User: What shape does this take?
Amino acid sequence: MTPLAIPSGLLRQVQLVADDFAAHTGVTVDPVEILTGRAAISDLAPQGQLSAGGATRLLATADGWCALTLSRRDDIAMIPALLQQDSVPDDPWPTVTAWAAATTAGEVADRARLLGLPVAVLGETEPAAPVVSPLGSRLVGTLAGALVVDLSSMWAGPLCGQLLARAGATVVKVESWSRPDGTRAGAAEFFDWMNGGKLSYAMDFDDPGDLAQLLRVADVVIEASRPAALARRGLGPEQAAGRPGQIWLRLTGHGTEGDRAGWVAFGDDAAVSGGLVGYRDGTPVFVGDAIADPLTGLQAAAAVAASRRRGGGELIELSMAAVAAGYRSRDAVCDDVTPVRPAIPSPGRELGADNAVVRRLIAERATPPC
Assistant: This one.
């Protein structure tokens, strides 16, 4: 396996978060496995200004650096509009690189964000602790036996749900029939690592059906869409009117304030936004593999476990860019870390395999005890 360059100080910080999670749950977490597991599965490693996954690039601009991610078909389709050209070559990166070099980082980001592209200006985000707001009444408990509804996809949110499952929670992974978690189409081992042991519930988000009831009876809800997405359907934390002690975890790319609430982010560009990069001869390079994702997933799980212990009744908001910023260091010395292949105790379930089981859970939890 190809070693990953990871700042040594970062590993020490991550161990502290893992220790905090263990103190609340009794579950031991290997930080190296968390940070490098996907790279081990697919033998990934960043190559300077090219991310490990290959979809994100660090681009030199007229006044600094930015990162752009082109991981979706829709992203690539937006490149002619970004460059204000009628068409671009099949490989758009040389043209994008030349355009960025003659443009300020701020202009690159502004234009990309108008088109809904995942982009970041290096170091634009400051470190910030999770934002915790009162949501409802408190009820002290552990994660063992708690019902967790995981509305997230990809990596950060599903990792949080996976860690809560290891702590004894019943985790329901909710997906759309028409647009399931994109990791189902990738390496099966990665999907299984993130989602093994969870129940699979599939639905049509335009006809939510039982979802509103499922949210009301949940002890923990993991949300990783842009904040307005659920609110438009009457499914946000304020509308769900959940159980006593309910914890609503909201994971975003750049936070929920102002324009940032609409900014799209993936793990590599979010890390750049937070300034979490390495330097080679004074030039920024990617570290780790989409490193803002596993950092956020682990920190989110620790935050949920701590909230559960103090009674919950809280909305907890974490921004991937702000989490990444908390680990940055301009003079960081990187270690070559050998990726650790994760242990996968059980495979992920087929889409919608547990719909009947989840409906029974809703009915049981909605019925007052005798």
User: Anything to note?
Assistant: The first helix runs from residue 8 to 25. The radius of gyration is 20 Å. The chain has a mean pLDDT of 94.
